Inverse folding.
């Protein structure tokens, strides 16, 4: 798992104080993508659960839950479509060759619509 540390991102630092028990368990990020598209503030948070979460945590001897934060970068003119930022992060991850466990974050952008498809146009809503 290649990880990019984003601890300097202000939104990530703000979300770091959120307890995993306050987050909905999800088997993957898709329910959160839809929730962010529907949310007035364009945000959704969850905690990865199930076999995938267990396998990742075991592989990296991680002590914390895998948290997912989805934020809307901008909405497109096509209804129900937006550019989303998705961040997966976990505390206590021990990467091969690392001296101590630390927080690891992977984040990526995705163009996504409520029906699961990409938008037909990337024209931004004004």
């Amino acid at each position: 798992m290649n990880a990019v540390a984003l601890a300097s991102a202000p939104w990530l630092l703000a979300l770091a104080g959120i307890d995993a028990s306050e987050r909905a368990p999800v088997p993957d990020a898709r329910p959160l993508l839809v929730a962010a598209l529907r949310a007035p503030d364009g945000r959704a948070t969850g905690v990865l659960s199930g076999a995938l979460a267990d396998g990742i945590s075991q592989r990296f001897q991680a002590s914390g839950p895998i948290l997912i934060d989805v934020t809307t970068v901008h909405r497109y003119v096509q209804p129900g479509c937006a550019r989303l930022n998705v961040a997966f992060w976990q505390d206590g991850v021990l990467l091969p060759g690392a001296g101590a466990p630390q927080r690891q974050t992977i984040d990526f952008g995705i163009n996504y619509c409520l029906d699961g498809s990409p938008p037909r146009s990337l024209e931004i809503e004004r």
About this structure: The chain has one domain: 10-113. The helical segments are 10-15, 30-38, 51-59. Strands lie at 24-26, 43-48, 66-75, 81-93, 102-113. The chain is about 20% helix and 35% strand.
